Amino acid sequence: MTSRNLVICEEQHFSTLTLKVPFSETLIKVYFTCFRFGKSFNQQGNLKVHTGEKPFICQKCGKSFTQHGNLKVHMRIHTGENPFTCQQCGKSFNRKVSLERHIRIHTGEKPYTCQHCGKSFARHGNLKAHVKIHTGESSFTCQECGKSFNQKAVLNSHMRIHTGEKPYTCSQCGKNFSQHGNLKAHIKIHTGESPFICQHKYVCFECDKTFTTANSLKLHQRIHTGEKPYNCSHCDKRFSLSSTLKRHERIHTGEKPYHCTFYIVHLSYNA
After folding, report:
1. C-beta atoms surrounding 43 within 10 Å
2. Which residues form the signal peptide (predicted)?
3. 37 found inside a domain
């Protein structure tokens, strides 16, 4: 059995390989160790993730990756290749994991369950966002207005309200959109996927529910994201709708704005 040391980066890490001797049944043992922190890995790709090394670069847009396989998947964005097709509806995807996630729409499977309340979700990201409702964590704050969010993606989407940015452009007519979901819905006008104008034109791409206005869709999506932008100034409870917050605050103020008109008339009549 022979062995050798491979120095990848003398400042940060090195790897030690135990090589298999020809005609021997000795198993190959490979260890990739970070020299700086002493952490070991059984795959070189994991070491690259640890050190932040990204040697695989996309020639189209310059984005870099730690592993060649990730670059290969990324290239499908540029080529338009969607090799994974849903047998239920024919929709295609560029990643197998995206297809598996999509199939749950048909099966109704929700494998991710909240340990606090038992609510289930089709996506792990939605579960993570939901759990923050229980923990009270809101780690992403808008520097413009102070609103807090429990998902970075929701904050990024919110920031476009202030910046006016519309990064999603229709390749057919050049119209710009601030939300990718709105672009996807718009493209169906050109593809003929929805040849008849339907009053329910705003679609939730988490559950396929439709709405007549963008604002209704926005409010609905808080069910999936767990976003609760309205907080009570009395007890720090948070709500997804301003109307729900207003109703809750009456517990603290004692306000009772609704009166029984029959009762009032009855008293007046007896008086």
Report:
1. 11
2. none
3. yes
